[in-house]
Design a protein that fits this description.
It is a single chain. The radius of gyration is 28 Å and the shape is elongated. It contains one helix and 21 strands. By secondary structure, the protein is mostly beta strands. The longest helix has 20 residues, at about 5-25. The chain has two domains: about 40-120, Immunoglobulins (Immunoglobulin-like, Sandwich), CATH 2.60.40; about 130-264, Trefoil (Acidic Fibroblast Growth Factor, subunit A) (Trefoil).
Length: about 260
């Protein structure tokens, strides 16, 4: 015959066994509360890829997740995080272009949160040798046709081949937001807009520092657009084609993949 005492003993024993299975040792079935916040993330790195800032760090097994805080100045991170993630990396596609942005990563759990040291990222192209890949033809590169350096030689796209015709010096123009001179590496030939008329092919011309050779970089979620100084039209692959030899021209900016470039 079952009595209330018997039922109580059986229920107590059942609770004991459940706790043992869940925790690996006898004890309460109640969830264990962390004694404090998780360790702060460390080895935090940041990199800009022409459209987003990628943050990576080493986290903690006791962290429930991570808050990503961003600011426009050192120690000026906003109190509201720009993102939350449970992994040890985050891609900030809303980072402002043409600036330096600052980040702190905070690990959190029910016991609190711990902040990392601050890192920053410069969301402009570094002054260095680069290639430029249009999103409409990811196997191609911005290319100086036949390697010609004479004034007026046209610029095209051509499949990636590591040739010098695809290596460009991006030189930041001091005192500007994000203006560059784009010069064929090892030559005096600069990327040049012929005129302010849309659809004109882009050429190379002896570097002269003129407005036709001034290119402004604009960050987008997937890459960069470049506007030329004459009329703010965008560097564009004609008709969005991907065929070798397709002309690169200036065209009204429209956000198309033919105007979005990944600079590596």
């Amino acid at each position: 015959m079952r009595t209330p005492h018997t039922l109580y003993v059986r229920e107590t024993l059942l609770s004991f066994l459940i706790a043992a299975c869940l925790t690996g040792s006898p004890g309460s079935v109640m969830a264990q509360t962390p004694s404090g916040p998780p360790p702060a993330p460390y080895s935090v790195t940041s990199s800009w890829t022409g459209g987003s800032v990628t943050l990576r760090w080493i986290g903690s097994e006791t962290a429930t997740g991570y808050y990503v805080y961003r600011g426009a100045s050192s120690n000026g991170e906003q109190p509201t995080p720009v993102g939350t993630t449970s992994s040890s990396s985050y891609s900030d596609i809303t980072a402002p272009s043409n600036s330096t942005v600052f980040y702190v990563i905070a690990a959190y759990n029910s016991g609190g949160l711990s902040r990392s040291v601050e890192v920053n990222a410069r969301t402009v192209v570094t002054s260095n040798v680069h290639t430029a890949t249009p999103l409409c033809a990811t196997g191609s590169r911005l290319d100086d046709t036949h390697g010609g350096t004479a004034n007026g030689n046209p610029v095209e796209i051509y499949h990636a081949n590591n040739a010098y015709t695809q290596n460009w010096d991006f030189t930041y123009i001091p005192g500007t937001a994000a203006n560059y001179r784009v010069q064929l590496h090892g030559t005096d030939a600069c990327l040049d807009a012929i005129s302010s008329t849309q659809g004109q092919h882009i050429e190379v011309w002896s570097c002269n520092g003129g407005v036709k050779q001034t290119w402004t970089a604009h960050s987008t979620p997937k890459g960069l657009t470049f506007t030329q100084g004459l009329n703010n039209m965008c560097l564009d692959v004609r008709s969005g084609a991907s065929v070798d030899g397709t002309v690169v021209e200036d065209w009204p900016c429209n956000g198309a993949t033919s105007q979005t470039w990944v600079v590596n």
